[in-house]
Amino acid sequence: MLLLLFCLFPFVQILSTSLKHQADWGNPSLIPAQLNFEAYKELLGFSQQEVELPETIRMMLESPAISEEQRAAIIKKFTSTSDIFPFGRYMLNTFVISMVTAFLSTLIATFAAYALSRLKFRGRNAFSNTVMFVYMVGGVLLMVPLYQMAVSTGLASTVPGTLICLLLIYLVQTLPVAIYMLGNYFRTIPFSLEEAAMIDGYSRTSAIFAVIIPLSRPMLLTVMFYCFVIAWNEYLFASVFLKQYQDFHTLPLALQTLFSSKNAIWDRIMAASMLTLIPVVIAFSVANRFISSGGTAGGVKE
Amino acid sequence: MSDNIAAQEARLGHRLIAPAALIIALLILYPIFFNLYLSFFDVELNGDKSLVGLNNYKTLLSDGGFYSALWTTVIYLAGTVTGTTVLGLAVALLLNQNFPFKNTVRALVLLPYFAPVISVVFGWQFIFDPVNGIYNHVMVEVLGLVSERQNVIGDPDSALWVVIVFDIWKHFPIAFLLILAKLQSIPSDQYEACAIDGYNAWGRFIHVTLPECRFVIGTVVLLRMIWNLNRFEDVYLLAPNVETLPIYIYFQAFTGVIDQGLAAAISVVQLIVLSGLIWFYVKKVLNW
């Protein structure tokens, strides 16, 4: 019980604060005095409240001294929605890049893992040792050279270039764990199944698609989940590469910016945290039966 | 004929690993050497650089910030590695027993590990918030241990402990998973034999569980050291004032007075330490 309390308390705290009114924050009770969904509505864009023009501004606008143009500009300034946090957009950005990463990484890793677990070729040991090594070298050590490479190739100065860089970096961060997990799994599939397929006239390559991939579907899903979560949670490289392109911020970056830019908005931050958490929890509960069965115990990487 | 098949197999193998090998070579192996190269230059954000020889390394050795980052990293590693391993082992022993909702409990225990850092850090920051946080409420008003509310995360010294506890919370599940997998493979007749020899539960733990788990515990300790040496996000997002080496590198490279060459030099030093640990891991643990 104590253990669960330790594990889950921060989550409960996030949920509770996200539902509290500002006046209620200092109250240590986890049950909000009054439920408040404003923060969620605001983040998801449901509350389109009309922006009231202040009285003085309205009087100013009525004065004949200002031109039509100035008047429009003033109205625009006061009704601007630029300070609304475009949560949906950030979520979509993050979702797209994480999905693409998860899919490509799993695909590339399937090929590599198959080669490592089944085929004999020169350089196999070297490759598998390199994967092992790469698996443990953190991205933080390579942020300077990677950034300099992106600058010198000119990729960092355009939006598509930046996104490609980021995608490649996410790929390389997820590939080793994917190769490792899939390789271990492929070794448990009896080779005789493939042989049978090849006797039936499949080529070696098409036997991969006909036998290995269907048999590994649960594992492939688990690996995709891992890669998705790694990309979804990534902050460091997103912050280095995307800082200047606000429209393309991912959730971790956007939340950090939100947190450091405004004060006294705990409910919004917590609601945003909750919404960032939910896709992972959903993915987790889907993949969980494979994970907690210990089948992936060797495949640890964060 | 068989030569032919072997050659075909090798060709297919090469084709299949090509995409992965290419990406790894381009984005990991090349940058490692490029990083070494950059560490001998004074590098600007826009890519301009001028050769300064070993100056970056000299600056590093005379830089108090570097030593304090090193020391912080050592405390951080010692605290988190011990904490995650001990807690992971304890929880694995606990959850290896049979009780209702076992699978649900196991899944819930894993949740901190998978949850996005960015969302959980805010929960933790709120807990330790000087005005609203429950930590201060309990310490000051309920238990009366501390006389006034403190900004625990604002002060680097106490923030280090928060960061360590946070890391243990977030990462003990993986230690738990690895150790649990091992526990489940220990044949129960060993325990029975031990029980027949007259040992109580503690004796069985000492004489069966620990020796059986020695290797997996070694793995956990080394892997946690390796990965925590690289850990950036958990620390930076929760308390950027706790300067472990990765955060020190980040500050040098991208904020304030930007000195990417120096950052590269620190990375080189850290990479050497890391390679040492990895070498040890591969040689010792994987061969056990």
Automatic annotation (TrEMBL), chain A:
Its main location: membrane. The keyword Lipid metabolism does not apply. It is found in: Cell membrane. Residues 91-287 form the ABC transmembrane type-1 domain. The chain crosses the membrane at residues 90-114, 126-147, 159-186, 207-232, 269-291. Keywords: Cell membrane, Membrane, Sugar transport, Transmembrane, Transmembrane helix, Transport. InterPro entries: BP-dep_ABC_trans_perm (IPR050901), MetI-like (IPR000515), MetI-like_sf (IPR035906). GO terms for cellular component: plasma membrane. GO terms for biological process: transmembrane transport. It is a multi-pass membrane protein. PROSITE patterns: ABC_TM1 (PS50928). Belongs to the binding-protein-dependent transport system permease family. MalFG subfamily. This is Multiple sugar transport system permease protein.
From TrEMBL, chain B:
Pfam families: BPD_transp_1 (PF00528). The keyword Lyase does not apply. It is found in: Cell membrane. InterPro entries: MetI-like, MetI-like_sf, UgpAE/MalFG_permease. The chain crosses the membrane at residues 12-33, 69-95, 107-127, 159-181, 262-282. It comes from the Bacteria. One of its GO terms (cellular component) is plasma membrane. Residues 70-281 form the ABC transmembrane type-1 domain. GO terms for biological process: transmembrane transport. It is a multi-pass membrane protein. Keywords: Cell membrane, Membrane, Sugar transport, Transmembrane, Transmembrane helix, Transport. The keyword Cell inner membrane does not apply. Belongs to the binding-protein-dependent transport system permease family. This is Multiple sugar transport system permease protein.
